[in-house]
Amino acid sequence: MTQSFDATIAPNGPNATATDVLEVTPDDGTDLAVAARGFYAEVGGDIKVTTLAGAERVIPVGAFQFIPCAIVRVWATGTTATGIVVLIK
Q1: Over the stretch 66-79, which tens digit does the pLDDT of each residue have?
Q2: pTM recorded for the entire structure
Q3: N or C: which end of the chain has fewer CB within 10 A?
Q4: What stretch of H or E contains 83?
Q5: pLDDT at 13 over 80
Q6: Are the C-beta atoms of residues 36 and 73 closer than 8 Å to each other?
């Protein structure tokens, strides 16, 4: 299968395509192993995250609504959504 974009243009830049997805378990004490480029939840609700900039945010999301924000942690406290998936490079 061929790709319809040029991955050689800023392959690691902020607009680069994710290369994998991981389902995460929210955890109040542990950051993600690698910063995520974005995330979604299979079942909507609130997701509390720490952004790459270090801000803690609670974001309401619908089922399979993609949020294109770089994050380093998904908190258990304050998160009601389930099936949380992060996109990574």
Answers
A1: 999 999 999 999 99
A2: 0.83
A3: N
A4: strand 82-88
A5: no
A6: no
Task: Match 């389930």 to its residue by tokens.
Answer: 82
DSSP-assigned states of every residue in 11-66: TTSTTPPP-EEEE----SS---SS-BSEEEEEE-EEEEEEETTS-EEEEEE-TT--
Q: Count Cα neighbours of 34 within 13 Å in the Cβ-side half-sphere.
A: 12
Q: What is the pLDDT of residues 32-76, one digit of tens each?
A: 999 999 999 999 999 999 999 999 999 999 999 999 999 999 999
What are the tokens at 59? 């974001």
| 3-class secondary structure, 87 | strand
Diameter of the chain measured on Cα atoms: 42
Distance of CA 50 to CAs 7, 29, 36, 59, Å? 28, 11, 11, 11
5-22-70 Cα angle (round to 5): 65
pLDDT on residue 17: 81
